[in-house]
Amino acid sequence: MQGGANQRTIFIVDDDRGLLRLIEKALQREGFRTGSALSGREALTWLAANDADLLLLDLKLQDMEGKELIRRLSETRPLLPFVVITGQGDERVAVEMMKGGAKDYLVKDVEFLQFVPEVVKHVLEQIETERRLAAAEERVNLVESVVERGFSAVLIADADFPDPRILYVNPSFTQLTGYSPERVTGQPLSALGGLSAVQERLRQGLPEQEPFLEGVSTYRIADEEHWVEWRVGPVRDKGGRITHCLVILRDMTERKRLEKEILEISDREQRRIGQDLHDGLCQQLAGIEFMSQALEQKIAPRSKTDARRVGEIAGHVREAIRQTRLLALGLSPVTVESEGLMAALQELASNTEKVFQVGCRFECQAPVPVRDPAVATHLFRIAQEAVSNAIKHGRARQIVIRLAQQQKRLLLAVNDNGSGFPQIPPRQSGMGLRIMQSRAGMIGGTLALDNNPKGGGRVLCAVALSSNSEQKANASGPKKKQLQGEKADSDRR
Question: Nearest to residue 170, comparing CAs of 68, 230, 95, 249?
Fold first, then answer.
């Protein structure tokens, strides 16, 4: 016998010693290991100390019937797979034994020894098939139990792309989206309006190298906006052919709400610090400068050297005032609120050149009014952080900030000629990048980081323009500009 046959042990119980030896030899020629017993008691003793894969049992033994041996064995151990051996005319008893658990039966006729190895092979294959089916069913039940009781929402669809039909949704999916299995099973994915972002992404095709697609989008349930993080992956057969599509969703509404609150608290605290610097420290420094100037004028007639030193002190104080005002403006960019995002980005470019001594310009081919103050503030902060990253980490000497509107999208891009972003992102990305991602998410946008073909890095933020945003009025009118500056939210990527 080939393969693992020599690993199988067949135990034979028959009170005919000569026939017993012939059965053993027939099986051993096929590569099986064998054990044997001439009586029921001897069989019980052997099986108490040894294991076997299959039992060949004569129904009529001298000390007990085969049925009794099976009963006694089942009381002490799991029932061993067995095949009954019977004489001619006792087939009815053999069939009854099969109803009681026997895998097959053999009749002692002229071809008996010829059929023994074939029946044993067939029964062992049957046992292995049943074992595999039981293991597969157990795995299926386990997976089904996990999916049914899991916290993540799961949707399974067929492979009829780009609009596959839904085959299954778990209870968490129903709880998250409000779509019941009866309502969506058999429907195309496009019928679920809340998952339009997923369906639109599927139109671009599934990934070849990456295991899944992922993204974050919003959907509405009963006039309430929810955030959901989704992953879409292909299910392939052994040949690599895509047979199904798996969609996993996770509700991020509470997380997004907390992120929004944290960012709002951070922004308020930055504005408060900026105002305190401007109204408090700057005023105190201005008073010191005034006193220094007065002292310089007072002692000038007596000692020009001392007066010059006092003048130098006043100059240092003026520089401290300038830097403090720049810092205050970076923490509290009033231009965003007073004159709009375009003016604020122009100031950011100008301040960057003054403070860091690098080339920085703002480009906007056509006016792009951003009427939602929250969107304008978040976009400004993203540009501010991108500029800071380009200087501090990319060592850039030239930076271009671009703002544009394409159809119903706002596009903010920050390009630089620095070292760019690493090909393999670090495991722990810096706080600055995570804050930019969060800010983009707060306004329903996406953030992409890549490298320019000619060198340098690029940060691109795209935000869909909503009708609500377009209806909000933007503060306008001439106001006195504050001193300009730029300060990044974080010192690390």
Answer: 249
